[in-house]
Amino acid sequence: MIQMQGYEEIMSQRAEIMKQSVGIDYSKYETGTLAFDYEKLLADTGYDVNTVCVIQKDTAVGNTPLIELKNITELVRAVARPGKGARIFVKDEAANPSGSFKDRRASLSVYEAKKKNYAGVVAATSGNYGAAVASQAAKAGLRCIIVQEAFDSEGMAQPEIAEKTRACEAYGAEVIRLSVGPELFYVFLCVLKETGYFNASLYTPYSILGIETLGYELAMQVQEQVGCFPDVVIATHAGGGNVTGTARGLHKAGAYNTDMVAASVDLSGLHMASDRDFNRKSFTTGHTGFSMPFTSWPDRADVPRNAARALRYMDRFVTVTQGEVFYITQVLAELEGLQRGPAGNTSLAAAFSIAQALDEDKIVVVQETEYTGAGKHPFSQLNLAIQLGIKVQRGDPKDNKPGQRIVIPEHPSQIAVTDVALDRIRRSYLHHAIESLAEGAHLSEVDINFLAAETRSSNTYVQEMTNELR
Amino acid sequence: MTELIEKGTWVEIHSIVLPAGERASQVPQDTQQVPLERRVKGFLVKPASLGDEAEIVTTVGRHLRGTLIEVNPAYTHQFGAPIPELSVIGGEVRAMLRKRGCIK
Fold first, then answer.
1. What kind and span of H or E run contains A87?
2. pLDDT along chain A (470 residues), means of 10
3. What CA–CA distance (Å, rounded) separates B83 from A381?
4. CATH of the domain at A240
5. Has residue A30 been placed in a domain?
6. DSSP secondary-structure letter at A199?
7. Contact A181 B36 (CB under 8 A)
């Protein structure tokens, strides 16, 4: 066994380690028993959207092309009722330096780390964000450590994460690869404590403010190319940052009437901390294993207060199946000449369904793509699935069963989102809120207002629900 | 005799962070039964053989110890064979667009 400080000892030092490693005293934003001043937490960073644009331009982040997917739109119209089939555009975020929109999140974190004289940055992530932090740190001349959940107890690496290990190491980062389990957070805390590096968490204000430019840019690009703001923007949804930052950016551009849709791959039935299920997910992000818990209770992140609060911003929350995402990934390559994803194409699969219900003059924007490559490709994921005994077949995507059967649609008309009832998520959020209260704790008016904003509901709704749930 | 790996070689070490049975209480049963393992790559500080306890220095300059498990570890992730269920989709959707006169 390696010599690290004991698990309980390190976990008990969590608050202090966080304060040192993020440079934010979160306690000063507390305004009630549960409430905190979310806008002040973000505003106190001093970064407005224009400043962030300038910082990102310096490291070639952002200003990615907005591409109209004319052939996919035609395919939508081939299966939609006459007069229906909105125009679909995609923001080609794969054009960022490390190949995904995560460069936007990493750029501001690394900028802040350098400004505050940290010697390096640490991030706990198995996804594109690791490569983004490593890439930005390389350019900024900071040291970088990435902590990944990378392999199961048989030593089998998830192929997409293996590619991310390679990418992080290519940028000169130290990569700590761990087997499956949430105790990754313990290792992460040990590293932060030992090194004194900056915690480039996905959930700090910097990470969210870095994404605002994405929503802002795409609103401006649609305005310039089409003459109006988009009707619908769809974001692949996991921890909540993508939805939160994009929606905030849209608002800053003045696009208040654009519907923000969150889309996740349905992984119901698989346990996120299970060693056995780890390699049976076929997706490493953008799935319900993250989006459900994080939407219904954001403060489960690696910082005291999560700046990604998706429930505040989503107008609609939908899921698609694994097979539908693999199908649309193939269509994107063959009809639009864009090899991207697959996980980032979750929102594209949703767009294909949602556009069918909208008039032809409406505009739907899929707000990201991500690079593709060995490991990070439908072939890699499906070959692994087959190796593990998961059936891959054509059929009705409704028969898709995560971990057992991946059903590739037989026809594009079968692609159909499933709506997640937002009221169920709101109730779940309030249930978590009540559970987090100490015995006898009282909810003040400030708390009720906060919970109403958090759940995008009203004070009356919060009061009624909390009375019912208590 | 096991071959000594030269100092400065790019290697990977392995360690157990938490043994089976000492995992966090919230992890599911299957994960409880296996240890939390760690693998890290770096440059070997002193000559050592595979299977030995060894010390590495990582790219950020940290010194870590663990069992030496690989020398110059390969990246083995790949695409693999094409998936027949995906290979036919392009033809199907192109035929639909062709019928609408959108493509040749």
1. strand A87-91
2. 79 92 94 97 97 97 98 98 98 98 98 98 96 98 98 97 98 98 96 97 96 98 98 97 98 98 98 96 95 96 94 98 98 98 94 98 98 97 98 98 98 98 97 91 94 97 90
3. 10
4. 3.40.50.1100
5. no
6. E
7. yes
HSE toward the beta carbon, residue B24, CA cutoff 13 A: 18
pLDDT at A3: 61
Q: Which residues contact B42 (CB under 8 A, 6 or more apart)?
A: A174, B10, B11, B13, B56, B57, B58, B59, B62, B64
> Chain A: nearest CA to B8, how far in angstroms?
16
Of the candidates A18, A370, A374, the residue with the CA atom closest to the CA atom of residue A196: A18
Quote the domain boundaries for residue B14.
10-73
Question: Is A60 within the bounds of a domain?
Answer: yes
- C-alpha to C-alpha distance for A349 and A343, rounded to whole angstroms: 10
Q: Say if residues A427 and A470 touch (Cβ distance below 8 Å).
A: no
> The pTM is what?
0.97
What residue in B sits closest to A372 (Cα-Cα)?
B79
Q: Which residues of A touch B34 (CB under 8 A)?
A: 153, 179, 275
Tell me whether residue A270 is in a domain: yes
Determine contact, residues A208/A307, Cβ cutoff 8 Å: yes
pLDDT score of B1 more than 80: no
Chain B contact for A272 (CB, 8 A cutoff): no
Is A238 contained in some domain? yes
Residue B80 lies in a domain: no
Which residues, in sequence order, are bridge partners of residue B71? B11
Residue A337 at interface with chain B, using a CB cutoff of 8 Å: no
What's the rounded Cα separation, in Å, for the pair A225 and A119? Answer: 43
Q: If contacts are CB pairs under 8 Å, which of residues 42-71 in chain B contact chain A?
A: 42, 58-62, 64-66
Cβ contacts of A87 on chain B, cutoff 8 Å: none
pLDDT the model gives residue A302: 85
Please answer yes or no on whether B97 and A78 come within 8 Å at the CB atom. Answer: yes
- Structural domain span for residue A455: 423-469
A312 lies in the same domain as A329: yes
Q: How far is A279 from chain B (nearest CA, A)?
A: 13
pLDDT for res A58: 96
Interchain contact A309–B (C-beta under 8 A)? no
